[in-house]
Amino acid sequence: MSSAPPPVRKVRGRSLGKIVGVGDFDGVRLHVVTGKGGTGKTTVAAALALALAARGRRALLLEVEGRQGIAQLFDSPPLPYEERKVAVAPAGGDVYALAVDPESALLEYLEMFAKIRHNGVAARGLRRLGAVDFATTIAPGMRDVLLTGKAMEATNRRDRGRHLYDAVVMDAPPTGRITRFLNVNTEVAGLAKMGPIRSQADRVMRLIGSPQTAVHIVTLLEEMPVQETVDGVAELEAAGLQVGSVIVNMVRDPLLPAADIVAVARGEVDSDAIRAGLKSADLDVPVELVDVLIAESVDHARRVELESQEREELIELGRPTYELPLLADEIDLGSLYNLAELLCEQGVG
């Protein structure tokens, strides 16, 4: 467990569209983070938790997919079904983490509402009866109620009259499943019309459908992730769920001056000037290599233009937007603090 932030390697972030201010998160206590696979959703969720816990606050980071990705990011042993402190946030503050698994959530639910003790004997008995398999595999709607129910309980939990956590961040399922995962009332409609399961689903939906919950979508400046983001925003809004922000991850800075991008993308490159520049720098570069460098420059300029088009699509969504850079090194605890600081600089926390 980390007790203090490691040295920070400075990285540069740039704004994209409307920059989020603290007012954009006023009243939000449950932050659901989703995104297409490969966009760095778990990394962004961890950085967001650090940013929201900054300056003396307390945040809980929830994992619901059973991958133990959070433990790996924070260089921690696999997380049990228990809230554990994993980091100190920038300028002071605590980040706790919890890996929520459906079986433990079911046993906790039964202990709270059916007064069945949460122990090994109860677990074995429920397995023999098939209750665990029913709740976690056969009835996916019930599974989602259990997972989101834990997020609700943590968000609403109080200690001495105030909320125990200032913010709860859920590393949620990917964009393609997020609306179904959160819209638990629809999912349990075929399981229970009334009774404790239905009541629990109703309580979950009161929180998820309220201004206290916001769904943040992580994306890349690439065609497929952007399209899935656009579709995800539409689905969430159609379901009456609040979209918080779009977080563009792994952004690469252009290597060419902005004034040259359009011309280079069209292949308008002065090869003689390039050769003269290389010669003046005492670099003896074969003609063939110069041609390769020119071709790579053209490819780079075209990629920058495509990214600009994807950026415009995201801006048209009208959602508050953050941007985080592509980090050259493998993501580690120091990287998380870098990204958290960039989020803070752009208005989180």
What do these coordinates show?
This protein has 349 residues and is α/β, with parallel strands linked by helices. It has an eight-stranded mixed β-sheet with strand order 3-4-2-7-1-8-9-10, with helices on both faces. Strands 5-6 form a two-stranded antiparallel sheet. The protein is elongated and about 80 Å long.
Number of helices: 14
What is the total number of structural domains?
Answer: 1
Shape: elongated
Query: Regarding quaternary structure, how should these chains be classified?
Result: single chain
CATH fold group: Rossmann fold
Helix content: 40-55%
Strand-residue proportion: 15-25%
**End-to-end separation:** 23 Å
> In which order are the strands of the major sheet placed?
3-4-2-7-1-8-9-10
Task: Compose a concise summary of this entry.
Helices cover 47% and strands 16% of the residues. It has helices at 41-52, 69-73, 102-113, 120-129, 131-138, 140-156, 175-182, 184-187, 196-208, 223-238, 258-265, 271-280, 287-315, 333-345, and strands spanning 30-35, 57-63, 84-88, 93-99, 158-159, 162-163, 167-171, 213-219, 243-251, 321-325.
What is this structure's SSE topology?
Blueprint: E1 30-35, H1 41-52, E2 57-63, H2 69-73, E3 84-88, E4 93-99, H3 102-113, H4 120-129, H5 131-138, H6 140-156, E5 158-159, E6 162-163, E7 167-171, H7 175-182, H8 184-187, H9 196-208, E8 213-219, H10 223-238, E9 243-251, H11 258-265, H12 271-280, H13 287-315, E10 321-325, H14 333-345
Helix pairs in contact: 1-14, 3-6, 5-6, 6-9, 7-10, 11-13
